[in-house]
Amino acid sequence: MSDVKNPSFTVSIIPIIAIGIFLGLSIFVYDAEPHMALFLGGTVAVIVALALGNSWKSIEDGITDAIKTAIPALIIMLIIGMIIGIWIASGVVPGLIYYSFDFMIPSLFLPAVLVFCSVVAIVTGSSWTTAGTAGVACIAIGQGMGVPVEAIAGAVVSGSFFGDKLSPLSDSTNLKPSIVGVELYEHIKHMLYTTLPAFLVGLVFFFVLGMWMTSGQNSNGDIYELQSLLGETFVFSPWLILPPAAVITMILFRMPAIPSLIVGVILGSIMYVSVQGANMNDMLQTLYGGYSIDTGSETMDNILSQGGMSDMYSIIALAMIALGFGGVMNKCGMLHSIVTGMMRFVRSTGNLVSTTLTSGIFINIFSANQYLAVIIPGQMFKESFEKKNLHQKNLSRAMEGSGTLTAPLIPWNSSGMFMLSVLSVSPVAFAPYAIVCWLTPIIVAAYGYLNITMDTDKENKKEEVS
């Protein structure tokens, strides 16, 4: 491939401009889904790559390689779709909602969701599993209390990603320090300086927001009505605790996510047949098409009618298109060229941290892959942090703050699409409330400019002095 031209920054930015225009027209003018906009942007990227001298085989490899990296995540999407449907149908989620109504205070609901989802994510090590199980239940409980669904989703996403980042069981939390050679627990401890303040601000924010949103409301009548409907519709048994308990236990023992979730599907199916008295046809239909019910209450029907493998198809299609676009940009050097062009802003420590954060967010937006959003900046800026005698844990913290925490706020990113699918709330709607996700990178940048907890590499300094 010696005849392939090295793309300049100006040429590399052409597909980015094109996809920005297409997405703007699609979302804000025609009120359409972003699928075709991303497809057209990908087409422009392919044309530019061919014009630079890349072969179709090379471009095709870029597309397939990007999608291959996301196959486990796509499989998890399908399984969680089945879990949502079968856990609702079997009574697992309705049981959690039913008994939560007994002691949940509407004004304290949002901060309770933040704490609850944080704990579940730390225990399971998975923001997706937390949002797809505990998050779905929180959405249902909050709707029953009259809390706006956008605020609930913001609390769920904030808690899920905060807990995921601090969990040693999280695959993404293990990935970042391994890229730059930092010990796992040193990386987690260093993140606490930025994520914990964001969490505490979020706790106060949701407390005030909850008090304001529920001020003057009396939702007891609605709660009792919904609780009565649940009691009439489902049979509640102590056995229903078995599916979530089994999944959490398997993940705690470091079992892989996919087999752990499959066990949740199997146990949920058994509960549906044995506890609720469903037949095999009902079970199979629910696993594929989701659960649907007509209780006479529009609120309850909206809460319970969801899930199923087919519910994830549109999200997976969007993920594959977005990943294909990112794959072309990465394989043909355009993504690398753009990130390299951003290096011109690296002068001070604050600029270095901010550029690292901006690169991660940029790649998250235009590659729709949070793994690329941490791998590329990690490789690009490692040497820059070394030259400034900064410990690599500063870099891994910045990678986490931008690459991981901003992913669910982007509608076409795999994390954003997943949250839309399981919570039924658009990232555009819940983003203002997902305070932990957008406040953390701001704090990381501020620490860079103010030189707060920006630890130096003492070993490197000793070698220089020697």
Radius of gyration, taken over Cα atoms and rounded to an integer in Å: 23 Å
- Oligomer classification: single chain
Which structural class do the helices and strands define? Answer: mainly alpha
**Number of helical stretches of at least 4 residues:** 24
Give the integer mean of the pLDDT values.
84
Low-pLDDT ranges: 462-466
Number of strands: 0
Principal-axis shape = globular
Q: Count the domains.
A: 1
Strand content: under 5%
Largest sheet: none
Keywords: Antiport, Cell membrane, Membrane, Transmembrane, Transmembrane helix, Transport
Main location: membrane
Protein name: Na+/H+ antiporter NhaC
Membrane topology: Multi-pass membrane protein
Helix and strand arrangement:
Layout: H1 9-12, H2 14-29, H3 35-51, H4 56-90, H5 92-103, H6 109-124, H7 127-145, H8 149-165, H9 171-180, H10 184-213, H11 220-233, H12 242-252, H13 257-274, H14 280-289, H15 298-304, H16 313-331, H17 334-342, H18 349-367, H19 372-387, H20 392-404, H21 414-423, H22 427-430, H23 435-450, H24 458-465
Helix pairs in contact: 2-3, 3-16, 4-7, 4-13, 4-14, 4-16, 5-7, 5-11, 6-7, 6-8, 6-10, 7-8, 7-15, 7-21, 8-10, 9-20, 10-20, 10-23, 12-13, 16-21, 18-19, 18-20, 18-23, 19-20, 20-23
